[in-house]
Automatic annotation (TrEMBL):
This is CPBP family intramembrane metalloprotease. One of its GO terms (biological process) is CAAX-box protein maturation. Pfam families: Rce1-like. It comes from the Bacteria. Keywords: Hydrolase, Membrane, Metalloprotease, Protease, Transmembrane, Transmembrane helix. GO terms for molecular function: endopeptidase activity; metallopeptidase activity.
Length: 288
């Protein structure tokens, strides 16, 4: 019975995330529209609509704030408080080494470019779907760079989504008795569904599997949050900077070169190349 409760809690986290995020979008749009209507009638209603469209990064920040508070508090009560804050902090960083950070930093860059191949394949198979996705990205404010953009793209989504999917959902699935590989696939599928469109859903599933593996490998959410944030950064501002600086042929070489690079980095991370000695020294220093 207890196992079923944990599976139900995992499902509840996912459903609540959808309600808070998408419901929050509807509530915010309704509030702004009613406010504009009250102040200036039909003209104010139109002004409110265009305000939201012109400030999508601000909208994203507002929408993510409620889930951030709700799920970070939930994670604190479920995991952090149980272990104790000091013990939890030590556990979150125990397996993280300079070499591990380096491998995962480069991995975020490599995976972002490797995803371009997936999108390219989808563009060949489903051109209209990918065109709609690209239009959605442009209208979502993902390329309107500012301090608000940093919070809306690089900070809040990774923090909230990792707490939800690689934190709470993965935690409850494993606590319910699911083996890691099964729990990881389930949370990755939910992560793909959460993104709400086919293109993002497919590559979000792949990224979700990777982030779940990293969370398990390092027994920490620190690395997944960092990789997720860098993935979002490289996929927006990073790509634009490359397009401005590098010739197209070099960009193509980078994209295809990042596929074997991703495989190599996963091997380095899995076997802890450059990490084991650091971890052993850390444990020796911590021995009484």
């Amino acid at each position: 019975m207890k196992k079923h409760v944990n599976y139900l809690l995992a499902a509840s986290v996912f459903v609540l995330m959808l309600i808070l995020l998408y419901g929050g979008s509807i509530v915010l749009a309704a509030v702004v529209s009613l406010f504009g209507l009250f102040l200036r009638g039909g003209e104010g209603l139109s002004a409110g609509y265009w305000f939201l469209l012109d400030h999508m990064n601000l909208v994203s920040c507002v929408i993510y704030t409620v889930p951030a508070v709700a799920f970070i508090l939930w994670y604190w009560l479920e995991v952090v408080r149980r272990d104790g804050a000091a013990s939890f902090a030590r556990a979150q960083t125990k397996k993280i080494t300079p070499a591990g950070i380096l491998w995962t930093l480069v991995l975020a860059y490599a995976v972002q470019h490797a995803v371009s191949i997936i999108i390219g394949f989808l563009a060949f198979m489903l051109p209209e779907t990918v065109a709609a996705y690209e239009e959605m990205v442009e209208s979502a404010g993902l390329t309107d760079y500012s301090l608000t953009w940093v919070f809306a793209v690089v900070i809040l989504p990774p923090l909230v989504e990792e707490t939800v999917f690689r934190g709470l959902i993965l935690h409850y699935l494993k606590k319910g008795g699911a083996r890691f590989w099964a729990a990881n696939l389930i949370q990755a599928v939910l992560f793909g569904i959460y993104h709400g469109n086919l293109v993002q859903g497919i590559y979000a599933f792949c990224i979700g599997v990777l982030l779940g593996y990293l969370a398990e490998r390092y027994s920490s959410l620190v690395i997944p949050v960092m990789v997720h944030a860098l993935f979002n950064f490289f996929g927006t501002l990073g790509v634009e900077l490359e397009s401005m600086i590098l010739p197209e042929i070099v960009q193509m070489m980078l994209i295809y070169g990042c596929v074997p690079l991703t495989a190599i980095l996963l091997v380095l991370i899995h076997y802890g190349v450059g990490e084991k000695r650091n971890v052993e020294h850390t444990e020796e220093r911590n021995e009484p």
